[in-house]
Amino acid sequence: MNDFYKDILTGAVFITGLLGFISGEFIISSTLFASAAIASNVNINRKRVKSGQLSCE
């Protein structure tokens, strides 16, 4: 899967969580926000490892 498609998928999950929050589905929106945050952090860390910018900070 291309990085662009991963970013689109993460954004779609975030927007869906936002719409769920607005409609009052707090449990579902919380899980969608959590999955979007985890997916975003995983993508960022993979990009850093690929480019060699990983540090011990």
Shape: elongated
Q: What would you call the structural class?
A: mainly alpha
The number of helical runs is: 2
> Termini, distance in Å?
29 Å
Average pLDDT confidence is 83
Strand content range: under 5%
Question: What would you say about this model in short?
Answer:
The chain is built from two helices and no strands. The protein is mainly alpha-helical. The longest helix is centred in the last third of the chain and has 26 residues, at 26-51.
What does this structure look like?
- The protein is an all-alpha fold and 57 residues long.
- Helices cover 82% and strands 0% of the residues.
- Helix 1 runs antiparallel to helix 2 (26-51).
- The longest helix has 26 residues, at 26-51.
- The radius of gyration is 14 Å and the shape is elongated.
- 5% of the residues are buried.
Blueprint (SSEs and pairs):
Elements: H1 3-23, H2 26-51
Helix pairs in contact: 1-2
Give short descriptive properties of this protein:
2 helices, 0% strand, elongated, 82% helix, single chain, 57 residues, mainly alpha
